[in-house]
């Protein structure tokens, strides 16, 4: 009567992911990785932050880790951002092996695809896109970094920041992140281009690559492109008007620097997590607004996190549809099916519930920090954003564990995690063609 | 080509409601109402707080208003709690006049009913229930208040607090609300019975009155009864464990007082808004938890506010249904129809959006209060709860106007307000029989 135990796709993904975090922790704890002694918790936090492409730090990377250490971090970011299974596929393909159905199912889960067809092609493209953007835009970065840091260090910094940006990790080798380049056009344009492209999602890149013309793009692609543009413009205006006179942030900047800083800080919260101004010095309404951006996040099947831009748009469409007395959620002449609505609603509610439990826990464990600091930290971890008011290193060990856990939940997605806890195999919701991706 | 302008039901409701607030403001500003001089804004705030049965105060009622003034407040609470149209119906019926279809449509809107049949019967019952509970339980209160305050004052206090409790207003004639009776069994039981019955909703009372047996109750009634019981038990346990050692609240209470205080503060946040402990002294996690309770609120078509308990339950049902891979939202062997899901989702999202805008506005206008104090105040106003950390009188005039506006939105419901802004007449979503009420 022994029941054969086998893991479902979601469970295998979670297990592999956790294994990589543990591997990263052990490697970062080794003497060759560090300049100063760090605790196991420090190593675990850094490894989790890198694998989940979050960028929150309990230690300052450049003063703590050796070049080998930061390179391990960079590799973890690359694994985490692109997905481990996609790497596994590449290795299999290079070895000339066939990808089994079981493996395809796991990749399907990881890439949030509804069919098994075209998966391998998608994975290959995904690599080509990554190498192209990280390489090409990394070279552009070196135009600025080589003169500033010398050839070798300049190239390394360019590669590290290109990888960190494209994978929306927000890790930086400067202690004050990118505040030193607040008004620099090259750094602003290249870094933001990298994280916006990385955050818009691989299916969107693929769609643009294949169809090239707006009319032929899928609904998902159109929504992502327009949505990203609109939300960035709104965020730019709000942040500029709130912070333009704040002496701690934009107030002391002159000329175009002010606009670059507002632009950068408007685009970065939806997962990238870089900062070119001091986040801890932002006004409370700005922090609150950035928390909303962090919750919304980037695109599905991208290097970004959050509940995802299309989920947010779908919820808005349902709301405005109901207010205008429609019984369907219609956008751009397409109906959003019930299954997608249920999924979006579930993702949003589950996310809010998890965030609330985490805030509640930290309010109990941390008595020296304010509510907004704690809420900001939790939402940042959940959205795998990595912006912080600066409290991360001073959190209690319990608090750091909660934040690390939130980063993992945020990266894997609350739904994947919940589904990985259920035993039976997934009855996949199959979307009709031309569908938008939720979460 | 002149277009005849006529108001839809939602617009008429909003206009009548606003008119009563203005009438109340003028009456409260008159010299016969006050012991000390108050500003127009003070009068407007008190009138709004009473009509919306919220209970937030910028002035201390007993030291500011005369007996006539507090009686005006009591009448506003009664109008606001039961609904103005229901009073109009009573007057019409007493005058022997017929209720027109147009009037019935407005009552239908006010009572959130899906059909016109049985409306007048429901309105009559509603009055009988109110008079019965306020009268009978008010008499029970006088057992405690007459010995404490003398016959005349004792009776007046009993009536005022019975009306305030049944209508979930939370207004009190004591400066420190009910903290003086923190351990008193009569006050705790009678006041909480009044606001729980008032908050559970008139259709539930009607259903219980008509069918008497559990099996014959509607889904809505069953959900409300079970939901109220479960959420109150959970809230009791959480508040007791968080606050039992807090010297500012439960820490200094002994014996049964501690349990009475925890019970009362667990039941009151879902709209009643009375307090028997100092809200400003609660720990941050407790404040956060109470904010969630305030957001959820009481029952549909009740004297309470919030997004409503059944809306909250529906959202949970959808979420758990999706996680368990069902494509329908099923509870107690009934399916929640799409229209109710869309409505619930719209109410929840609209509520969150409005709350966020208000918090954002107050973060800009009030620089001396913390994020949690501001968020608590906004959610309290939106849920027409009336609990406060004590900042209401010290808010800027702009801030007080925002809070007053939030009380109105919370009382009328964000959906009614939004629909009143649209021009065309409502295509009613008709629910199949045995449906639950959303919002
Ligand atoms: K990040
Ligand atoms: K109230």
From TrEMBL, chains A, B:
<keyword id="KW-1133">Transmembrane helix</keyword>
<protein>
    <submittedName>
        <fullName>Trk system potassium uptake protein TrkH</fullName>
    </submittedName>
</protein>
<dbReference type="InterPro" id="IPR003445">
    <property type="entry name" value="Cat_transpt"/>
</dbReference>
<dbReference type="Pfam" id="PF02386">
    <property type="entry name" value="TrkH"/>
</dbReference>
<feature type="transmembrane region" description="Helical">
    <location>
        <begin position="221"/>
        <end position="242"/>
    </location>
</feature>
<keyword id="KW-1003">Cell membrane</keyword>
<feature type="transmembrane region" description="Helical">
    <location>
        <begin position="65"/>
        <end position="94"/>
    </location>
</feature>
<keyword id="KW-0472">Membrane</keyword>
<feature type="transmembrane region" description="Helical">
    <location>
        <begin position="126"/>
        <end position="146"/>
    </location>
</feature>
<keyword id="KW-0630">Potassium</keyword>
<feature type="transmembrane region" description="Helical">
    <location>
        <begin position="186"/>
        <end position="209"/>
    </location>
</feature>
<feature type="transmembrane region" description="Helical">
    <location>
        <begin position="12"/>
        <end position="28"/>
    </location>
</feature>
<keyword id="KW-0813">Transport</keyword>
<keyword id="KW-0406">Ion transport</keyword>
<dbReference type="GO" id="GO:0015379">
    <property type="term" value="F:potassium:chloride symporter activity"/>
</dbReference>
<keyword id="KW-0633">Potassium transport</keyword>
<dbReference type="GO" id="GO:0005886">
    <property type="term" value="C:plasma membrane"/>
</dbReference>
<feature type="transmembrane region" description="Helical">
    <location>
        <begin position="287"/>
        <end position="320"/>
    </location>
</feature>
<dbReference type="InterPro" id="IPR004772">
    <property type="entry name" value="TrkH"/>
</dbReference>
<keyword id="KW-0812">Transmembrane</keyword>
<feature type="transmembrane region" description="Helical">
    <location>
        <begin position="341"/>
        <end position="363"/>
    </location>
</feature>
<feature type="transmembrane region" description="Helical">
    <location>
        <begin position="397"/>
        <end position="421"/>
    </location>
</feature>
